[in-house]
Amino acid sequence: MQFGDSRLSKSFWSKHKLDANDCWSYIGTKIDWDGRAVVYLEKRNGNKMVGYNYRKTSDLIHGPLPKGMTRSHVCPGGANKLCCNPSHIIYEDTHANTARYWETKRGK
Question: Nearest to residue 50, comparing CAs of 71, 73, 29?
């Protein structure tokens, strides 16, 4: 998947920029308490559903999150909670995710 892929709306892409680490960083205004980008995912019963930008792109490329797995950011420039590049997101179990966390600067 390339930045600007037509499977995602122009509105989605207008709120993201490509940075030096090939991160697709969110530049919109909706950020949650933990610094993650919040975007509209789909409409259900006429209502907009909100969720995280990285879930939208990773599900599109990797498929739905398997039971017992979690999504992990592995951005080359470090932890970028605003990134949604699916090549920077992997599915792994909680144990592996926690181990990676403590090996990074985020956990120190």
Answer: 29
